[in-house]
Amino acid sequence: MNDDKKTGTAIKVDEEEGKQVKTKELKEILSSLLLIEEQEKSEKIEWDKAQEEDKMMLEENHRKRTKTMLDYQSEFKQFDDDLDQSNRVRKRKSRAVTNAAIASVIAADSDTNSGQKPAGAGAGPQRRLWVKTRSTDWWDKCNSEDYPEEDFKKAFRMGKDTFEMICNELTSAVAKENTMLRDAVPVRQRVAVCIWRLATGEPLRLVSRRFGLGISTCHKLVLEVCSAIKNVLMPKYLQWPDDESIRMIKDQFRSVSGIPNVVGSMYTTHIPIIAPKISVAAYFNKRHTERNQKTSYSITVQGVVDPRGVFTDVCIGWPGSMPDDQVLEKSALYQRASNGLLKDVWIVGSSGYPLMDWVLVPYTQPHLTWTQHAFNEKIGEIQRVANHAFARLKGRWSCLQKRTEVKLQDLPVVLGACCVLHNICELRNEEIDHELMIDLLDDEMVPEIGLRSAIAMKARDSIAHNLLHHNHAGTSFLS
User: Burial of 244 by CB count in 10 Å (0-12 exposed, 13-18 middle, 19+ buried)?
Assistant: First the structure.
């Protein structure tokens, strides 16, 4: 009994000792966890402090770097301003020295011309070294009053009076003022350079020699004068006629052909050009290439003339591959007709144009009747007015017969100037030398749709019938 009690007491003691051991171990674990947690907090505080210090250091470095860059930029700007100021001072001094030198040279020239030798001058005459000496003897001779009228007309395709009139009209547009470095080219010489270039088609280097001017100067003068002709003279000398003029034109064409209500004769010609750098295929002229056995490029000039051969409408610059009917459709004349401004009148064209309500063309089908033959003969007389006008245009201004040095974008202005000058010569009865006349070689292409108006077909048949019925038709086709 006593042994059992002792055993029970020993067991209890062991259990209590086991509990104490476990409690001690648990306390040690908790203590370890607390120590770890405190260590982590301490490390975090230190990390945050280090991060803050790094941030402050970076900000300080950034401020220092920014300040340094701003200071450098300010110093550089100050240096740049000082350099600009120094350059301006140097340029002013240079101009002052140059002006002084110019004044001394001018004074020396004046003294030399008056027979007084300036102090320190050499044996030879003083001259402006920046101007290349060129001879103007040829132009000085042409510009003299005693130069023969016939020789002047042969050189410039017009008489002295017509040339003088053109110069007077263009003075305000082309005159330039003299400068300290050189005198401006006079208006008469400017106009003469342009007209000579158009009349002869000579290369710019030859024009330069004749007029004693630089090649680039001659090129610039040609374009400037042509532009002035377009802006100043074209509104006066190349415009669609007014109502009174229309009535006179109708009467004159009717007296020639017997065909009523004709207000113009139309023709399209081709101007040879150098192969352009862009859209080469568009400017390729297949017909001229086949005839000449040489690759040809061109642009078109469509014109309407009155009975005197004076242009009343022109359309310039469409590519040479376009047939006549397509050029017509692109023109301002076609737009004018579409707006009803050519109602009840005719413009006579060749078989290259379509028959429309306002365009009258010859019969082209095979096996024509006598009436149709007679009509074609009379309408051919009107066609020849435009054909001969273009022949005089190209004969008078030889630059239109050869490939020009003028750039493609400048060519319409030059061609327009030629048409205006042609009109002035025609209106002032400036005859053209027969040796200058040429035969036009513009192959006509029958349009795909040649008959575009049933009303126009009936009107043409009626005109043809009336011509034969009233004995206005010719009979040359019978011979």
Answer: exposed
